[in-house]
Amino acid sequence: MARRKYYSIRMRSSKGGVHLSGAEGIYDPDVIGTIVKNYTGRALLHDRGGADEIHLAVEELTETPRKIPSLPLCTVNTRNPESAKKAAMKILTSVGITERAVEEALNALDVGISMRGAMLMDIEGVRLEPDLLRGVRVTRMGTSEKAAQQLSAKLGRLGLNNDTVKEALVLASKVHRYRMVLGELCISDDPSYTTGYVATRAHGYVRLPRIKKKGVPCGGRAFFITGGEVKELIKYLQRTPVLIDEIRPCSGSVTLKELLKPRTRRS
Ligand code: WAQ
Ligand code: MG
Questions:
Q1: Ligand 1: distance of its center to the CA of 3 in Å?
Q2: Whose CA is closest to atom 14 on ligand 1?
Q3: Which end of the chain is more exposed for a tag (fewer CB within 10 A), N or C?
Q4: At 236, which helix (H) or strand (E)?
Q5: Considering the chain, what is the average pLDDT of its residues?
């Protein structure tokens, strides 16, 4: 029997030369038309005004996507940027990342230069990505139709069924499948989106509300990594297709104490 075909579909849109929105997924051939229509519609009806330029890529994958489960999701109900950053520090240092590295990442996210991709940092805070201005973009990831329905249902019960959360969870799930990655810190660059997250394999995807004040137009991502071939990691992040086909538990609020207790770890 012929190998099943999969397509990576990616969209990015801009208005007046400024980036507006992006979306991507991995799909069966029979839904390409629907998805292209859907992505185009999203770009044309964006909150910040419709796009005047839309780039679409539809590419047949030469490799069968690796099927993986999502990271489990929860929220630590942090009240302000200070407590959110403190929680991020505790969670990330508990898996062996140094305080210095987390501070470096927080400082870099604060300076106001938004990168297109993520920083790669070793556990001491030394930057390892070859292009320090652009960072590394994770692409070629998606969710199977069945898993997408499950994810919508699970997030819906928490009032979190939106593209921002779903896309971030899919990205973090792909990234953390790779053993060299120990943790991630993410703050949105959208001025009105103030919830960030940290992720580790031990704790899952941990949402941190109010990590930044409303109106702050910068954000970013850092992946904390440990010994291994950085080139191979970058190749995986950018090119290896990964499909989420199973959704792990999505829970509401948990306390930091509960989350950090070794026996409640969610790996
Ligand atoms: N690969 C690597 N880095 C990326 C990518 C990507 N595909 N997309 C964005 N980034 C980097 C880039 O530096 C951005 O400035 C930064 O991440 C933030 O991107 O559960 O929307 O798209 O409620 O603004 C978190 C959701 C949302 C929390 C994060 O990020 C929740 C978000 P944004
Ligand atoms: Mg985004």
A1: 33
A2: 220
A3: N
A4: helix 230-239
A5: 94
The type of residue at 257 is K
Contacts (Cβ under 8 Å, ≥6 apart) of 237: 136, 137, 138, 174, 175, 178
CB of 131 closer than 8 Å to CB of 122: no
Please tell me the predicted confidence (pLDDT) of residue 78.
98
The DSSP symbol for 29 reads: G
Test site for ligand 1: of 113, 164, 238, most ligand atoms within 8 A of the Cβ: 164
Could you read off the pLDDT of 5-61 as tens digits, one per residue? 999 999 999 999 988 889 999 999 999 999 999 999 999 987 777 999 999 999 999
Ligand 1 center–CA 150 separation, angstroms: 23
Domain ranges across the chain: 7-64, 67-260
In angstroms, the CA 106 to CA 192 distance is 19
pTM: 0.95
| Residue reference for tokens 């770009």 | 43
pLDDT of residue 262: 76
Question: What kind and span of H or E run contains 256?
Answer: helix 256-260
- Residue 48 CA to residue 50 CA, distance in Å, equals 7
Pair 187, 171: CB distance under 8 Å: no
C-alpha 164 – ligand 2 centre gap (Å): 6
Q: Which two tokens stand for residue 148?
A: 């997408």
- Find the residues whose C-beta lies inside 6 A of ligand 1: 114-115, 117-118, 135, 137-138, 164-165, 168, 171, 186, 188-190, 195-197, 207, 219-221
Closest ligand 1 atom number to CA of residue 197: 28
Query: Taking 60 as the threshold, does the pLDDT of residue 123 lie above it?
Result: yes
